[in-house]
Amino acid sequence: MNEELTADNDTRNVTDSFRGMSVEAIKARLDASRSNLHIAIENIERDFNAGTIVRNANAFNVEAVHIIGKKQWNKRGAMATDLYMHVYYHKTIDEFMMAARGRRVIGFDNIQGSVPLHSYPLPDDAVLVFGSERNGLSDEMIKRCEGLVAIEQFGSTRSVNVGVASGIGMYAWMQQHVLAKSEIV
Known about the structure:
Layout: H1 23-31, E1 38-43, H2 50-59, E2 64-69, E3 87-90, H3 93-99, E4 104-108, E5 115-116, E6 126-130, H4 139-144, E7 147-150, H5 162-177
Parallel strand pairs: 1-2, 1-6, 2-3, 4-6, 4-7, 5-7
Helix pairs in contact: 2-5
């Protein structure tokens, strides 16, 4: 016997305003207020951080998530937030670039030639691309990006986790395009 979902018995990882709503109703409500931002994950090696990136994309209510390469990823890390997102799969970078046409593709990687995030004006119509945890973006993806951005770091580690990097990148975009224009305190 299935109990009807209500705000009182809903144990999903959703905010109170979404408790008791169906997946379809939550997705429709999010669709009404999504930002213009797209996120892409170059999933070369079935990176377990993809779930975290999708969860971050939901937290920032981005318009779409593109997964390039392997379709298999750690959905457990997303904590079912992928159900409320528009997730698109592309076998190749060429397929992704066709889908991203009309958007500006910005890669996040701490390689030579990257511009520090604090000084980079992220475009409104951006697709922020994140690579694999171990290897970053592929050489092919780097060549296809309009710009490359690096997150400034101040300690001894070479890089931050790609899931963390995605959250920083999305927040930076939100600062430039949403928070700067809103009256949210």
